[in-house]
Write the C-alpha cells for this entry.
Amino acid sequence: MGWLQVKRLLMGAEAIAEAAINSGLEAYFGYPITPSSEIMENLAVLYASHRSDRFRVYFQSASEVESINLLMGAGAAGHITMTATSGPGLSLMAEGISYAYTSEIPLVIINVNRGGPGLGNVAPEQSDYLFVTKSLGHGGSKPIVLAPSSIKEAMGQVRMAFELSFKYRIPVIILTDAIIIHMLESVDLDQLTPVSVDANWSARGRNGGARHLINSIYLEPAEFSKIKAGLEEKWKTIEPLGECFMCNDAETLFVAYGISARIAMEAASNMRENNIMAGVFRPITLNPFPGKMLVDAAKNSRRIIVVEMNEGQMVLDVQYWLRRDVELIPFNGGIYPSTEEVIERCK
Amino acid sequence: MKQLSAIIPGAVNTYCPGCEHGLLLKLIAMALEELGITEKAVMVGSVGCSTLAFKFLNIDYVQAPHGRAPAVMTGIKEVEPDSIVFAVQGDGDALSIGLQELFYAANRGIPVSIFMYNNMVFGMTGGQMAPTTPEGMVTMTTPYGRDTAKSGPPIYSCEMLSGLSKPSYIRRVIIAPKPIQLKDRVMYSSREANQSYKAIISAFKTQMKGGFSYVEFLGTCNVNWKMSILDSKKYAHNVSAKVYQPALFRDKFGVDFIES
C-alpha cells in the first residue's frame, strides 16, 4: 500500500474519521450538531464504501440521549464505539456517561467545543473544560479527557482513546474545537493500526460461561462505597500527559491546551526573539490533569499565564496545583486569540 | 421441580406479595429454556421495579438509564446480532421518559423483545401517576383522580406502535390472575400466566426471525393502588382490561398461538 504513505492534506473532521477507521472503530452512532457533523458525514461515506470490515455498524440516532445509550449497548457488548458531538449534545449525554462510568463501559466521545452556554454559537470555545473534567454526569463521574492541539495529534488521540477506554473500561472524551475540526493539515494516514481489545468481561450472552453483570446500581451503602473506592484506585493508575515547550528557562510560562497552546507556543517563540524568556506547558490529558508535571515545569518561572478560550476554567486547576498567583488571558464568545494579541496582553 | 438455568439458584423473589413482576421473570426464564436461547440472552435492565430482575435472572445483564433500555438494546443487538436481547420495562419507563427510545427502536424494526409491564402507576417511586393511569384513578400525584382534561388521556402503547410499519409482533395480554370466587374461598386462574408465557415465546420467536417484538402485560400494583391483593386482581380484570383490551395487534411471522 505504498501509495497511501504519501502525505495528504486533510480537514480535521476527515482526518478524525480516517483515524477512527484505521484504529479499528466498530460502531458509530451520532446525531448531527454543528460544528461536529463533518466527522459523522465522513464516517457515513467510509461506512457506505465498506472501507473497513471491522466498521460494521453506523446509524443516525434520534437524539444525543439515544446516541449515548446506543454507545453504551455496543460498549457493554465489548465493541469499539464512538460518537462526535458538541456542547448542547454533550449536556444530553451526561446522564449516560454517568451510568457508563460506574458500569465501566468503554466508549469514546469527540466533543467539538462550540460557544456556550445555551445555544451560544458555533464558533470555537474551550468552555466545556470544567464540565468534562470535573463531573461529567451526576454523582461525580470522571471520564478521561484528551485535548489535541493539531490534526495529527487528534488522529493519534482517537487511537489512544480506543485503547484507554478498554484498558480502564471508562468513557474517554476528546475535547477539541471548531478550529481543529475545520482546519487543514498534512497528515500521514498509515501511522495508525487497529486496536485489539480484551472483551472477556462483556455482555454478549453467557455462552457456556458465568454471566456478566454490567451494572451501576448498588443499593447497599457499604457495597457502593467499596465499588467507588475501586473506581478511585483505578483512576489513580491513569497516567497524566503533558508537554513542555521551552519550559526549562522560561521566566514567563504560558499554560494552555488544544488550539490555545499552539497560539501560545507561537507567542512564546516570538517573545524569545525579543529576549523575553517565555515557554508553554501544555496539558495533553485534561483529566487526569498533569499537575505534577506542571509544578515541575513552573519551578523557575516568574509569571504564570493561562491562555484559554472561556472566562477562566483551567486556571482553577493551575492555581490548585501551583498555589500561587496565576494570570489569565481569556478569550470567549468564539473569538480566538492571535499571537499578537496574546503578546500584547502579556505586557 | 427442575431448576431453570436462567434463574439464579436459591434466588428469592424480592417483589411485593401480589405483584406479577416475579411471575413475568419466571415465565421469561422458562421461555428462554424452552427455546434453548439462555446462553445467548442479554437482558437490559430498565429503571423501576423491573430493575430488580438482575437479582433473579442468571443471564448477562446491562443496566440502562431510566427509559433508555431500547437504545441500549439496539446498541447490543447491532454489534452482536446473534444474541437474544430483551428488556422488561414498566409503563412509566417505556411510555413517559423513554417514549422516544421505544418509538425509534420499534420504527427501525430492531430485532429485540420488549416486555412492558403495565400496572398504571410508577411503582418503585411510590405510586405516582403514570402515562397509563386511567381517568379518575387516584395516585400520589393525582389525589383527586387523574384529570385527563389536563394530563391528556392515557397512552395506548400497542395501538401507537401499530401505527409503525416495521414492528413484527405486538400484543397485549393480561398477566394478573383472574380471581375465581368459590363458595368458601378464592382461587386464581392459571389462564393469564399461560397466555403470557405464549406471548413471550412468540416475542422471542419473532426476534429469532429478525423482527421487533413488543408485549404489554397488564399487571397489578396492589401496594400502590392501596388495595388488597384480591381487589387488585379484580381491578385488573374489571377496569384495566376494559381500558386496555387484550388483543393481538401484529404478527408478521404468524408465530402467535394464544387461543382466542
